[in-house]
Amino acid sequence: MDKNRIRSMWFLCLGGVLCLSACSKESEPVEISEDQKEKVLVALVAADAVDGETDKIIKKCATCALRMDGKDEHAMQLEGYTLQFCSKRCRDICAKTPVDILLKTQ
Ligand SMILES: [Zn+2]
Question: Does any domain span residue 67?
Fold first, then answer.
């Protein structure tokens, strides 16, 4: 009797952990479709060159059309590039719609 109880509690725990890991995955950057990837990469290369260094770190805020300086604390990864944003808000906007944002920087 008690054994069954412990077992069901164990499964509840396991279910909770699985749910948590699934939920945390939602905050990862969105997937970019194959046909958009090429355009996004062109935009990333161009945005990377704006700060004078092609080091795969984009130091200007893409959401602000590369007009503002980005900060390391508001950075995100995309297609092997590090994008730095001027604020958390800009970072969140780009994390949700990276294609729209990056194609606007061109
Ligand atoms: Zn910004």
Answer: yes
Q: Is residue 22 part of a domain?
A: no
The Å distance, Cα 18 to ligand 1 centre, comes to: 35
The tally of domains found in the chain comes to 1
| Cα(44) to centroid(ligand 1), Å | 16
Query: In which residue are the tokens 């194959």 written?
Result: 34
Are the beta carbons of 38 and 22 closer than 8 angstroms? no
Q: What is the CA(21)–ligand 1 centre distance, in A?
A: 30
Each residue's pLDDT tens digit, 69-97: 999 999 999 999 999 999 999 999 999 99
Q: What residue numbers bound the domain in which 43 lies?
A: 30-104
